[in-house]
Design a protein that fits this description.
mainly alpha, 0% strand, Signal transduction histidine kinase, DUF3046, 74 residues
Length: 74
Amino acid sequence: MRRSEFDRAVDAEFGALGSALIDDLGLPRLGNRTARQALRDGEPPREVWLALCVEADVPEARRYGVGRLDPRDR
């Protein structure tokens, strides 16, 4: 997952709340850092996305493959 895919996934899953979640929600899987802190520290976007999904109770069916652009839309 690229950073741009992470951003699209957050927007798609959380909408307007996404920005607050990545700035304020501590992620135990990532040492209680926020998503923004973890990304800034060099954590892979996929790991940050999955940690965010766990803490926000995103169903597993919506955790994988999100954020990718449909090749037909490029």
